[in-house]
Amino acid sequence: MKKTASALVLAGSLAFFGAGAANAVENYPAPVPGGVSDATVAPGATVSFSGTGFTPGEAIRIDVDYDNAPVVVPGAGVNGVIILAELINTFTTNADAQGGFSTDITLGEAGTYTLTATGLESGKVVTAVVSVDPSFAEGASSGGSDNDGDLADTGADSAMLLWGAAGIVAVGAGVASVAVARRKNA
Fold first, then answer.
1. N or C: at which end does the chain have fewer Cβ atoms within 10 angstroms?
2. Where are the transmembrane segments (predicted)?
């Protein structure tokens, strides 16, 4: 009985920690932050998005995602708010002789935009986040780049906790079935 319980505990632990490792692999390698002329702008403003490290002359796909307002998606199995991103623009540009690029992007309505540049040959990914704030329409401005949102996700999330709970339930079911089988045989 002790060997069986030990084996079940070991299997449950592997299921729990394996889910954490799978979650970590999903988010790596982390995207490389790109540069934007302004991290917060007024609606209708144009920002300059740039990055380096691409193959010289390489074609680069630029994706502009608009992070919509939070919504609850029924039937998704998640108790909470899900932020849906909408791809609003995709275009290509080419890297210069040094492997860099710079392109101007006009952002319309208020919200948060994620700019992603992907090298079509190298696979290199560069990202930047821009916030469009209506209060900046009155002439306020902010310089610099804010890339805190581009950090890799290293914490636990709900998927890891769900897999861990499933592992614990599986261990409990295994222990119960072994106990019942032993009582029937005795």
1. C
2. 160-181
Those residues with Cβ within 8 angstroms of residue 68's Cβ, 6 or more apart along the chain or in another chain: 83, 84, 85, 86, 111
Instruction: Tally the domains of the chain.
Output: 2
- Convert the pLDDT of each residue in 30-78 to its tens digit: 555 578 888 899 888 999 999 998 999 999 999 998 886 555 555 555 5
**Residues forming beta bridges with residue 32, ordered by sequence position:** 126
- Domain extent for 147: 30-151
Residues 96 and 170 in one domain: no
Reduced to 3 DSSP states, what percent helix, strand and coil does the chain have, rounded to the nearest 5? 35, 30, 35
Helix (H/G/I), strand (E/B), else coil: 49: strand
Written as one string, the DSSP assignment of 87-131 is EEEEEEEE--TTS-EEEEEE--SSEEEEEEEEETTT--EEEEEEE
Angle at the Cα of 49 from the Cα atoms of 47 and 55, rounded to 5 degrees:
160
pLDDT in tens, 73-123: 555 555 555 556 677 888 999 999 999 999 999 988 888 898 999 999 988
Do 136 and 65 share a structural domain?
A: yes
Across 69-83, 101-115, 124-138, 145-159, the highest mean pLDDT is recorded for: 101-115
